[in-house]
Amino acid sequence: MITPFDYRRRLAEIEDEVMEAVKRVLHSNRLVLGPETEGFEREFATAAGAVHAIGVSSGTRALELALAALGIGQGDEVITVSNTCVPTIAAIRATSATPVFVDVREADLTMDPLLVEAAITERTRCILPVHLHGNSADMDAVLSIARARKLRVVEDCAQAFGTRWGNSQVGTFGDIGCFSFYPTKNLGAYGDAGAVITNDPELGDKLKRLRTYGLDPSGLAQDEGANARINEIQAAILRVKLNRFDAWMSRRIEIAAAYRDGISNSALTLPAHLEKCTPSYHQYVLRSERRDDLKAWLHEKKIITGIHYPVPVHRMPAYAFLGGEALDLPVTDRLAARILSLPVHDGLTPDETHLVIEAANSFPG
Question: CB count, 10 Å around CB of 362?
Fold first, then answer.
């Protein structure tokens, strides 16, 4: 069976180092905010091209803390997209702010900047683009609008570590970039973890306080914070995996290139990205007018696929109060019924990649 994700494929390669890292933590007498967290933050900041990195407990917490650090809360509006994972919206709601949805572009399923201006009101405080599937949103256009309107920018990079916009990593363009290290991510922990990055030293200090109840080094709460710390064991494991990231990323790129060159079925539309974007292929998302049939066809051939995402957030019951079916998001709604994610994880073998290509090409479109 060819699966969308299997962390065990790479475990043998790093198991000794991982176990040594865990043992190092257990014998350190520092289980929280110790040398492993400090080391990972330093190394991740370098890898992401940022000045400051702060390890947190999840990607959702990263978004929550980013918005809180910028003072966004009750009565404020945050412009974002519905074609995303629920945590993007849950994080906005956790600050008591209101998500305002704009549609995505047909080409790459990221925020359509041409629609952002019309969505801005006197309550708008922030634009939150989602770098989806490993594609980058158009950060030139987003930043141009944000600067002209004096709005903050928080980048949701949960699916995009390794993605570049021009010569820089995503997450370094806005005020704060937010990352998830959920196990399925390009850089995944063995559990939940996340990080925020920023080039602003004041924001960096505030984010460090917010992840630990708002406490300053003297133990006084300067802000209303939370318990959102990364733990030492996950930080230590991520340091091991970060050392392998470039090689593993190269494998994803090879698989994506093989799909691009090998899938020739005219009934399938291959993923696209903007010219300035260098994608990291967190997902490889096809489109088909007969998506459910395609999914079943591949399953019969022992290829398990995913859908990211079958139901846009604005159509979920919990968020119906944001507009629901009345919202005009035609691209989001239409593509939700057509997208299908092929396996593209770095543990996929060349033979398995070839089998996926053959199965996609044999689908009777």
Answer: 12
Ordered DSSP codes for 306-345: B-S-SS-GGGSGGGGGGTGGGS--HHHHHHHTTEEEEP--
Neighbours of 212 (CB within 10 A): 16
Q: Are strands 77-81 and 124-127 parallel, antiparallel or unpaired?
A: parallel
Residues 95-133 pLDDT 10s: 999 999 999 999 999 999 999 999 999 999 999 999 999
| C-alpha Rg value of the chain to the nearest Å | 20
Assign 165 to helix, strand or coil: strand
User: How many CA atoms does the CB half-sphere of 51 hold within 13 Å?
Assistant: 11
| Dihedral of the alpha carbons of 79, 130, 33, 68, in degrees to the nearest 10 | 0
The DSSP bridge pattern shows strands 52-56 and 77-81 to be: unpaired
Residue 168 near residue 141, CB atoms below 8 Å: no
Residues 257-284: b if buried by 16+ CB within 10 A, e if exposed: ebbeeebebebbbbbebbeebbbbbbbb
Cβ–Cβ < 8 Å for 295, 340: yes
Whole-Å CA distances, 250 to 50, 80, 130, 165: 22, 30, 23, 17
> Can you give the pTM of this predicted structure?
0.98
Residue 113 DSSP label: G
Q: Tell me: the pLDDT tens digits for 200-245?
A: 999 999 999 999 999 999 999 999 999 999 999 999 999 999 999 9
78-96 residue pLDDT tens:
999 999 999 999 999 999 9
Single-letter residue type at 150: K
Q: What is the largest CA-CA distance in the chain?
A: 67
**Residue of 198, 228, 218, 229 lying closest to 70 (CA atoms):** 198
